[in-house]
Amino acid sequence: MSYQHILLAVDYSAHNDYVANKAKSLADIYQAKLSILHVLDNIPMPDTNYGEVIRLNENTGYELLEAEKRKLIELGKRLAIDDDDQWLVWGVPNQEICACAAQEKVDLIIVGSHGRHGLALLLGSTANSILHHAHCDVLAVRLLDN
After folding, report:
1. How far apart are the first and last CA of the chain?
2. pLDDT above 90: percentage of residues in the chain
3. Closest Cα partner for 37 from 124, 144, 134?
């Protein structure tokens, strides 16, 4: 059985392009639909609910949010992803990624992972939490710290 819908969860880290290229390659191999999701957890949230999808085609006037939207749109263009398959959501990353994957009937989530050890491993990571809570396969792309 091949993958039909792949969700790339991005965080705009220095390794973002590496993970994105892996996702694009797998989508091409399987001829699967590729979607991208970025969960906003690093900028203050205005009067909105967690889990609310932010429209990419409307100007909010909120500079930090507009910068995040531009990054997602740029990545979507580089990966040739339809506008309707690009999502920006406020919330807790692992929860929103799993929720989006279930709602959109994703069968593979791709996320970068630093493979933490020691205390960081005990406290958990986004990739680890997704692995344990997702209803579908999860590919954690190992990222090497420079």
Report:
1. 36
2. 52
3. 134
Question: CA-CA distance, 95 to 142, in Å (whole number)?
Answer: 21
- Tell the burial category of 98 from Cβ atoms under 10 Å away from its Cβ (0-12, 13-18, 19+): buried
Q: Could you please report the per-residue DSSP string of 32-81?
A: -EEEEEEEE-SS---S--TTPEEPTTS--S-HHHHHHHHHHHHHHHHTT-
**Structural domains present in the chain:** 5-142 (3.40.50.620)
Please, what's the largest Cα pairwise distance for the chain? Answer: 45
Report helix, strand or coil for 10.
strand
How many CB atoms sit inside 10 A of residue 1's CB?
A: 5
Contact 107, 1 (CB under 8 A): no
Do residues 32 and 6 lie in contact, with contact meaning Cβ atoms separated by under 8 Å? yes
Encode 108-121: b = buried (16+ Cβ within 10 Å), e = exposed: bbbbbbbeeeeeee
Least confident of 13-17, 85-89, 117-121: 117-121
